[in-house]
Amino acid sequence: MARHSPVTGRYVTLEVDGLEYKVFYLHNGEGTPLICQHTAGCHNHQWRGLLEDEEITKNYHVIAYDLPRHGKSDPPLNTEWWKSEYRLTADHFVNFIVALCDALDLGDPIFMGSSFGGNVALQLALRRPDRFRAVIPVEAADYAPGFFLDWWHHPHANAAQVCASGVWDLMSPHSPEKDRWATWHYYTQGSETFKGDLYFYSVDHDLRNSLKDIDGRKCPVVMMTGTYDYLTPPEAADNTARQIKDGVYIEMTDIGHFPMSENYPLFRVYLKEALRIIRERTGA
Amino acid sequence: MAQDIEDWANRLKHLTDNDPTIAAMGKYYTCTFMYDMEDRKVIVEMHDGKVKNINTDPRPLDAYDFALRASARTWREFAEPLPKPMFHGIWAASFREDLRLEGNLLVLMQNLRNFTVQFELLRKCGVPV
């Protein structure tokens, strides 16, 4: 008998800023929509643990999509995308996420994203608090400079391995080896896109003067950061959350920048706490 | 107490040459680099995934492609079995601690997979500072 997972995948077509995308997503569960953004240059397998979490999927409809140009979501269908350099902007990223939530008819979803997904979660809380029940910025901060590097895309190096081994020590040495190598494997697959994603992450994203405009009372902001994250270390996340009205910061000990992928059993302990806080604050 | 440097070099060579992860993709892991550990410096010469030589007493004109320079204290942290945050890799320590990556970094990037695996062998053999 076939050992099928309860997780299924599907495509949805939508248009954002004049670009047509056919977006692939994995989903499982019933209840409050929990829509999940993978990290830069990666894909939705990072959420494999959460998608099959029986306890969480009893009450949450977990949706993990591939951002266009990642995983099974192709580049735009209606442009000659190969004729220009890819650079993700905050505007387009936010517009895409809202358009995807609309296309999937998600009422009052919780948005969770890690790394650049965490940074865009902060952008969503600032720009569209009306559209989301709450946001969970994982491994995020108001500003994350220093990672928009030519090395990710250098034609004289094995870009796949530079991307994968270049993010290796974003992960904690405490995390299980097999899950760190799985994450490494995913990162070998996104080298054409990684640098362009990091334009948003390290250059276009800068909320240092805007945090005071995020109201965590309207749209709860629950930040989570691992102690081994060297890009947005715990103090950066803590500093960010403090400047957001009713912002929450949860420190995750002994885990790194890809917590949901490098050590899901540990991550889920903190995630359940974040979801509990959101339930408490939104009365859901 | 700092280890005898020749013993340490032999241990690093043994660990490297017998590491299955490096051997799985060892072909073309060829480069020469310096570990500058403040009190001691070594130049490691790699060829197709095996240690060709470890120069434990570099002279002024001995060549290498790139160097990792940090305080002896930082190198000791690198060698802990489970390093503390920010001492758990060369990217972490160069962003947040006193590690400097110098020289022809393209060569480092071209060999990054195996270099990273080898660097973590210091957690098994320690450092001679």
The structural domain count of chain B equals 1
Which superfamily, in CATH terms, is the homologous superfamily of chain A?
Alpha/Beta hydrolase fold, catalytic domain
**What profile does the largest beta sheet of chain A have?**
6 strands, mixed
What is the CATH top level name of chain A? Alpha Beta
Look at the structure and give the mean pLDDT of chain A.
97
Order of helices and strands of chain A: EEEHHEHEHEHHHEHEHH
Largest interface: A-B, 22 and 19 residues
| CATH topology type of chain A | Rossmann fold
Proportion of residues in β-strands of chain A: 15-25%
Structural class of chain A: alpha/beta
Write the topology of this structure.
The complex is a heterodimer of chains A (284) and B (129).
Chain A (H helix, E strand, L loop, with lengths): L7 E9 L2 E10 L3 E6 L10 H4 L2 H4 L2 E6 L24 H14 L6 E5 L1 H12 L6 E5 L20 H8 L10 H11 L6 H11 L17 E5 L7 H9 L5 E5 L6 H4 L1 H19 L2
Parallel strand pairs in A: 3-4, 3-5, 5-6, 7-8
Antiparallel strand pairs in A: 1-2, 2-4
Helix pairs in contact in A: 5-6
Chain B lengths: L4 H13 L2 H5 L6 E6 L4 E7 L2 E6 L10 E4 L2 H7 L11 H7 L3 E4 L1 H6 L1 H8 L2 H4 L4
Task: Give structural attributes.
heterodimer, A: alpha/beta, Rossmann fold, six-stranded mixed β-sheet, two-stranded parallel ribbon, B: 129 residues, alpha+beta, Nonspecific Lipid-transfer Protein, Chain A, five-stranded mixed β-sheet, 39% helix
What do these coordinates show?
The complex is a heterodimer of chains A (284) and B (129). With 284 residues, chain A is of the alpha/beta class. Chain A has a single domain (8-279), classed as Rossmann fold (3-Layer(aba) Sandwich). In chain A, 34% of the residues lie in helices and 18% in strands. Chain A contains 10 helices and 8 strands. Chain A has helices at residues 48-51, 54-57, 90-103, 116-127, 159-166, 177-187, 194-204, 234-242, 259-262, 264-282, and strands at 8-16, 19-28, 32-37, 60-65, 110-114, 134-138, 222-226, 248-252. Chain A has a 6-stranded mixed β-sheet with strand order 1-2-4-3-5-6, sandwiched between helices. In chain A, strands 7-8 form a two-stranded parallel sheet. In chain A, helix 5 packs antiparallel against helix 6 (177-187). The longest helix of chain A is centred in the C-terminal third of the chain and has 19 residues, at 264-282. The N and C termini of chain A lie far apart (39 Å). The mean pLDDT of chain A is 97. Chain B is an alpha+beta fold. Chain B has one domain: SCP2 sterol-binding domain (Nonspecific Lipid-transfer Protein, Chain A). Chain B is 39% helix and 21% strand. Chain B has helices at residues 5-17, 20-24, 72-78, 90-96, 105-110, 112-119, 122-125, and strands at residues 31-36, 41-47, 50-55, 66-69, 100-103. The longest helix of chain B has 13 residues, at 5-17. Chain B is globular.
